[in-house]
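F.,

This is the one I mentioned.
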């Protein structure tokens, strides 16, 4: 009986769908994180005036529709700046001034933050162009001389659907 149960368990595992996870490195850092390649797509890299780069990924795992019937594309934005001369709190403030938000929660330990320190936020803002409310999880940290902002975002009414996915990704930051 034990051998039959073991054989059934092995057969069940063999037929489970396997997600194509991959470790993704953040350029100019030693930081990696894991993404499911079937659910997330790299879109592009933006060069920013301050010498920073922004790497943008989009969630395409399944269609997410908000309460207004609009298709929502949750995203991951990674801001990397290895030319910044201030400290982490200065950078957080400067980035806040570029796009103000309401801080719902602030933490210094938890998913997405290295043991060496950093700052994490759960935040909200209203996009002035479409008047939609957005929620996000964001962490700031420094790797050697490079400052990183790691932000996962979606609309307020689709956040509950994506929060587990966002926390799972933040939990893989190394």
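My design for it:
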């Amino acid at each position: 009986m034990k051998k039959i149960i073991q054989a059934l368990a092995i057969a069940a595992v063999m037929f489970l769908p396997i997600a194509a996870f991959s470790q993704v490195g953040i350029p100019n850092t030693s930081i990696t994180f894991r993404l499911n390649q079937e659910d997330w797509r790299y879109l592009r890299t933006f060069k920013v005036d301050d010498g920073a780069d922004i790497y943008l990924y989009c969630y395409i795992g399944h269609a997410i529709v908000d309460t207004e019937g609009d298709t929502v594309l949750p995203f991951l934005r990674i801001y990397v700046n290895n030319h910044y001369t201030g400290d982490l709190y200065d950078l957080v403030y400067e980035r806040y001034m570029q796009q103000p938000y309401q801080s719902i929660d602030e933490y210094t330990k938890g998913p997405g933050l290295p043991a060496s320190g950093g700052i994490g936020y759960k935040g909200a803002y209203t996009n002035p162009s479409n008047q939609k409310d957005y929620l996000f999880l964001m962490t700031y940290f420094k790797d050697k001389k490079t400052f990183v902002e790691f932000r996962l975002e979606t609309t307020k009414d689709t956040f509950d659907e994506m929060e587990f996915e966002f926390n799972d990704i933040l939990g893989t930051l190394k």
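Helices lie at 2-14, 88-98, 159-170.

Talk soon.
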